Amino acid sequence: MLMPDILKEQISIRNQNLHFTQTGEGPVVLFLHGAGAAGSNPFEPMLERLNSSFHVIVPEHPGYGYSDKPDWIKSIPDVAYFYLDFLEQMDLSDIHLIGNSMGGWIACEIAIRNTQRLQSLTLIGSVGINIEGVSPPMYLFDKTPEEIMRLALTDEKIIEELLSIQPSEEQEKINARNMETAAQYVSTPYSDGLHNWLHRIDVPTLILAGDGDDLVSPEYLREFEKRIPNSKMSILEDCGHIPSLERPDLLNSVFREFVGNL
Question: Which residues contact 187 (CB under 8 A, 6 or more apart)?
Fold first, then answer.
C-alpha cells in the first residue's frame, strides 16, 4: 500500500507567510507543536500512522521554522487568534485539534474563543495555566539542550540519536530563531486567568500525560481535566513529554480510540 505524500506548503494570512506540512485524506487533524520543535520533525512517526485515514496538518508557528513573525504577534493568545484566521482561510471544519506542550496551550486559547470548527481537542503534556498550590511546568531557559532532552524524553536510544545529529548552518540559524521566539512566548509558561475560561471548551477533550515526563506533572494536567467539561485524562506508560516521537504507536492507538468513540 502506497503511503500518502508528506507535502511542505505555505499560505499567506494577513500578508504573513505560514509554513506547514500536510499529508493524507479524511477528517482533519491539526497538530500544534511545542516550544522546542518547529514543523513536522518530531511528529513524522505520528504523521505516518495517521495519514492513512486523516488529513494531517502540522504548522510551523509564527516565528518558528520558515514562518514569518509579524511584530503584532507577541503572545500565545495572539498566536491563537492567528490560527483562527488560518482555519477560516483554509475553510477547515470538524477538526481534531491536537496540541503538545506549548501547542496544547495554543489549542486551549483557540478553543476558549471559538470551537465552531472543532470536533475534538487532545492536549498532550499541555502547559498554559497557573494554579495556586500546583507546581507549574519547569522553567527551561536556564538549561542546556541536553538537559531539556533528558527531562523531556525517557528513551535513551532516541536521546543519543538526537544528541549525535550535527545540524547544518542553516538549521543552526533556524534553531536560534526558534529559541528566540520561544523565549518571547513561554518565558512565563501560562496565561493569567486561562484556567478561568476552560469551561468554555465544549468539545470532547482528551488529556494525555507521559508517566516519565519530568517537565509537566500529571498533577498539573489534572487541573485541565477538572476545568474542561466532557474531558478525560489518560497516562501513557513508558513515555515522556513527546509521545509522538517516543511512543507513536501507543499515541496513535489512544487517539484513534478517542475519536472513534465520538
Answer: 141
Q: How confident is the model at residue 138 (pLDDT cuts 50, 70, 90)?
A: confident
pLDDT at 38 over 60: no
Instruction: Please give the single-letter amino acid code of residue 157.
Output: K
Copy the grid coordinates of residue 127: 502547559
> What CA–CA distances, in Å, run from 62 to 33, 37, 38, 88, 244?
12, 12, 10, 17, 22
* Per-residue buried b or exposed e for 70-106, using 16+ beta carbons within 10 Å of the residue's own CB: eeebeebbebbbbbbebbeebebeebbbbbbbbbbbb
Cα–Cα distance for residue pair 47/4, rounded to 1 Å: 10
| Alpha-carbon torsion (91, 199, 197, 254), positive or negative | negative
pLDDT in tens, 62-87: 999 999 999 999 999 999 999 999 99
Distance separating alpha carbons of residues 137 and 42, to the nearest angstrom: 20
pLDDT given for residue 41 in this prediction: 64
End-to-end CA distance of the chain: 28
Residues 6+ apart with CB under 8 A from 13: 82, 85, 86, 89
What cell does 250 get? 501507543
